[in-house]
Structures are given as structure tokens and as C-alpha cells.
Write a structure and sequence with these properties.
With 161 residues, this protein is mainly β. It has helices at residues 2-18, 156-159; strands spanning 42-43, 53-58, 65-73, 78-83, 88-94, 96-101, 111-114, 118-121, 127-130, 135-143, 148-149. It has a six-stranded antiparallel sheet with strand order 1-2-3-10-5-8, with no helix packed on it. A five-stranded antiparallel sheet has the order 7-6-9-4-11, with no helix packed on it. The chain binds copper (II) ion.
């Protein structure tokens, strides 16, 4: 059944390309073309403090398998020290991400990642970040994507309920 469905999906995809149609509004995580003006941003993700927005473009970061997501940070946004059990891969699309390594947030000990920069760091590496102006990053990797703060008090998921 799954094979039939993916065959159908590929056929539909091929057909829409053949007709020269743009697949302008794919559902989040579904095959298609995601032009920057059509990306549907949502508040979140839940592991970040309020103010950020995100959009999942491919796959599902909560499940096994590859995913691509974007995160929009407002000016002045900070991400406290945290780590992931898998390699983190970040492409800065606009603005500048300032990234530091270590268990303690230190704004003066960060490296500038201006638009166009790519970086990846190993699983388990403790790191933190901040932005001066609005910044968009693209995160791609393999789910499930787990985000663990060094200090649990920094985790907004703990503040709820
Ligand atoms: Cu991270």
C-alpha cells in the first residue's frame, strides 16, 4: 500500500512538472517547491523561548528520518547552552547567527556566522547562540531531533503547566 502511495505521489509530482505547473502550496513536510514568500511560519518550536518562528519543509523532525526545517529569530534572540544526541547542521540564510561552544552563555565568546555560512558540530557538543538582528537559519538532519538544555531551568517546555 505504501509503495502504491509513493508511486502515486511520484506520478502526480511528475505530472505537475510535466504540465509546467508550480506546486506552489505543498503541505508542510510534503514534496514541492517552497519559495520564501510562501513558507508558512508557525510560532515555536517548543524547545525555544517565545518569539521564534519555524517551518518544517521536509520530513518530520519528531520522527525517524531526514528533515529540513527553518527557524526565524527576532532581533536580540538568545539560545542558552544545550546539546543534541545527533550532529547539528546549520545553514544561515539571512542575518547573522553568533555561535559559541561550551556550557556557559558568553556573548563575547561566539563566532559570527553571516548569511551563507554553513556549520555542523558533533552530537553531544554543548553550544549556545544569539542574534543581533532578525536571522533565519535552515536546519537539516536526521530525526528524531532532540534538544536538551544544559540547565533545565532554561527549557521553556518546563515552564508550561
Ligand atoms: Cu543546537
Amino acid at each position: 500500500m505504501k509503495r502504491v502511495l509513493s508511486f502515486l505521489a511520484v506520478t502526480v509530482l511528475a505530472a505537475s512538472f510535466a504540465q509546467g505547473q508550480e506546486m506552489t502550496h505543498p503541505a508542510a513536510g510534503e514534496p514541492g517547491i517552497y519559495s520564501p514568500t510562501e513558507i508558512k511560519w508557525k510560532d515555536g518550536p517548543a524547545f525555544l523561548p517565545a518569539g521564534a518562528k519555524f517551518a518544517v519543509l521536509e520530513g518530520d523532525p519528531t520522527k525517524e528520518g531526514p528533515f529540513v526545517m527553518r527557524i526565524w529569530f527576532p532581533a536580540g534572540f538568545r539560545i542558552q547552552p544545550h546539546w543534541h544526541p545527533k550532529v547539528e547542521r546549520v545553514t544561515v540564510l539571512s542575518g547573522t547567527l553568533n555561535l559559541g561552544m561550551g556550557e556557559r552563555f558568553d556573548q563575547s565568546a561566539t563566532r559570527k556566522m553571516p548569511a551563507g555560512t554553513y556549520g555542523f558540530w558533533p552530537a553531544g557538543m554543548r553550544h549556545f547562540a544569539w542574534v543581533k538582528g532578525k536571522t533565519i537559519v535552515q536546519l537539516h538532519g536526521t530525526g528524531p531531533w532532540i534538544f536538551t538544555y544544559v540547565n533545565p531551568a532554561d527549557d521553556p517546555r518546563n515552564a508550561k503547566r
